[in-house]
Design a protein that fits this description.
With 553 residues, this protein is an alpha+beta fold. The chain contains 15 helices and 21 strands. Strands 1, 11, 12, 13, 14, 15, 16, 18, 19, 20 and 21 form an 11-stranded mixed sheet that branches. An 8-stranded mixed sheet has the order 5-4-3-6-7-9-2-10, sandwiched between helices. Strands 8-17 form a two-stranded parallel sheet.
Length: 553
């Protein structure tokens, strides 16, 4: 039986632009369709890798007057925000919770709100225990910590957002936790990546944004809604008039308007309709591409994204694309290999074949440094979620290119789009894209940067040459899993898994089971179990993906 989620995404894609053809999209960003709202940013920047983000977060927190609101997938109370040379600017504590405690004791009006995902038991051994007690016993009650358990069954709260005084906000792919810190050099060995008594972790790459202006007000509203949805009650974050807000970004972000796109999975208690703006945004961006698509992401297992790329490549009346993907060499853990790695390899191999058949250039890469001690490559783990199309569109945030990120988990992306060719926004997007590619490739110098900037033709072929030589950081992605490394494991490779779903199979199934009086409890339980394990339940009529602009939760 054809998978329900595949059918559903095809309905979304068929509705695109109201036509059956893949006509170029004049504007990608469309409020009410693929974003919640578009707001002005007074200033904005991109923070590449956790050294730059943690340092700017520390600086902004030091100036907080009324509140610091933080939400994310994971937190660690003692993660160090300043390390190495950056410690010179520490005014006191530089670890997260001790710093917050110090700030609150110095300012009785300051309140700190921390909203963290009430994580799966599968992750219990990797998380800091008793966080509710650790955070809430700090600073005379000025720190309020909550676990968010309001996600759909099988879903996760995955948005990463910090708002301070309604004056400055941070959003992107980075959590404030252990095993994330690195700088843009991604050295093979670095003692600064050691934190909380652990052994140093490997090189790690991520991207965050920092913003000021009216867009911060809407992000504060989003935090208020998430807090209420988690059961924390009504929260009103005051906007503080401040003239001391400044930051030093890794790269300047495009000026002007910023779009806010969200993902929420449908929940019954508390009631929350599905919001899938990020999914539609990604699909619209891919459909609009005329010259190239650049994606760096932690995973690639989304059937919708895969189908959108295939559809665009098979549009014979349109120009040939340069498609560049930068991914981790492999997922971090075996469970992630099972969850996304197998599907990812299958999809990438198919895309490579389709590109060859249709004349498009398709390159998948990872980044590594060579260990002089052993001669082995040490790979940088890519955790960022960035997409650039034709240097006229940029989106970055928390949403992975997976089924669950586009339909089940809570996600948050910010996007910029140029209004005219080669305007200031286009130039800013190009600088960001080229800088990220240069970091992954280990390239310097104007000649190399000009070649990276010229993405119209030959980019993938040139990157392939750089990767094959192995003299820099760029590597051709092996597109293999742990099951390809052993004949025994290969025989155990599963054909289909539900670890990366688009929607919660359990939520509605349980609801239906409890409300069908004609069904016995045992029969309902058998049906529920079978649908959960193999995903072969009766297909429901398609429900349109609504923008839900009025639903902030």
């Amino acid at each position: 039986m054809r998978c329900r989620r595949t059918w559903r995404w095809r309905q979304v894609m068929a509705a695109e632009a109201g036509t059956g053809r893949d006509a170029p999209v004049r504007r990608i960003i469309c409020p009410g369709r693929n974003c919640w709202t578009v707001e002005e940013a007074s200033d904005a920047g991109v923070l590449v890798d956790a050294r730059d983000y943690y340092r700017e977060l520390y600086r902004a927190a030091q100036k907080a007057r009324r509140y610091i609101a933080i939400t994310g997938w994971q937190f660690d109370s003692d993660v160090a925000l300043l390390r190495g040379e950056d410690l010179r600017e520490a005014r006191g504590e530089s670890r997260l919770l001790p710093m917050l405690d110090e700030l609150c004791r110095a300012n009785p009006e300051l309140r700190v709100y921390v909203l963290a995902w009430d994580f799966s038991l599968l992750l219990a051994m990797e998380r800091e225990w008793m966080q509710r007690l650790i955070f809430n016993w700090t600073a005379n009650g000025q720190v309020c910590f909550r676990f968010d358990a309001s996600s759909p069954l099988y879903g996760a709260h995955h948005q990463k957002l910090v708002v301070i005084d309604g004056a400055v906000a941070f959003s992107g792919g980075m959590d404030v936790c252990d095993c994330r810190w690195d700088d843009r050099e991604h050295r093979v060995h670095s003692e600064l990546r050691c934190d909380s008594g652990r052994d140093p972790h490997g090189p790690y790459h991520d991207v965050q944004s920092v913003l000021t202006g009216l867009v911060v007000d809407r992000l504060a509203e989003l935090f208020e809604a998430r807090w209420a949805h988690s059961g924390g009650g009504e929260l009103r974050l005051p906007r503080v008039s401040r003239d001391d807000v400044d930051f030093t970004p890794s790269l300047p972000a495009p000026p002007g308007s910023v779009a806010i796109s969200r993902t929420f999975g449908k929940t019954l208690l508390p009631p929350q309709p599905a919001v899938q703006e990020v999914a539609v945004l990604y699909l619209d961006a891919i459909a609009s591409a005329e010259r190239f698509i650049y994606i760096e992401n932690q995973y690639f297992s989304s059937r919708a994204i895969f189908q959108a790329l295939v559809k665009r490549m098979r549009s014979s009346w349109r120009g040939r694309l340069q498609i560049v993907l930068v991914l981790p060499q492999q997922p971090e853990a075996l469970r992630e290999q099972l969850a996304m790695g197998i599907a990812q390899v299958r999809l990438l191999r198919t895309l490579e074949r389709v590109a060859h058949e249709t004349g498009h250039a398709f390159g998948v890469y990872c980044s590594a440094g060579n260990d002089a001690r052993t001669g082995e490559d040490i790979y940088t783990y890519i955790h960022s979620k960035v997409m650039v199309v034709d240097d006229r569109f940029l989106t970055l945030g928390s949403a992975n290119t997976t089924n669950r990120s586009l339909g089940l988990d809570s996600e948050l992306n910010l996007s910029w789009e140029a209004e005219a060719p080669n305007d200031a926004t286009t130039r800013a997007i190009r600088r960001i894209r080229v800088s990220l590619m240069a970091e992954h490739a280990g390239l310097e110098g104007m000649a190399a940067l000009r070649l990276l900037a010229a993405a119209d033709s030959g980019l993938v072929e040139w990157l392939d040459d750089v990767a094959v030589m192995g003299l820099r950081r760029l590597r051709v992605h092996p597109m293999s899993t742990v099951f390809d490394q052993s004949p025994l494991l290969k025989s155990l490779e599963p054909e289909e898994l539900i670890i990366d779903p688009e929607e919660s199979v359990l939520d509605e199934s349980l609801f239906e089971a409890l409300h069908r009086a004609e069904d016995g409890l045992f029969a309902s339980g058998v049906r529920l179990l079978s649908r959960w394990l193999v995903g072969t339940g009766t297909e429901r009529p398609h429900r349109a993906i609504l923008p839900c602009a009025q639903d902030d939760g």
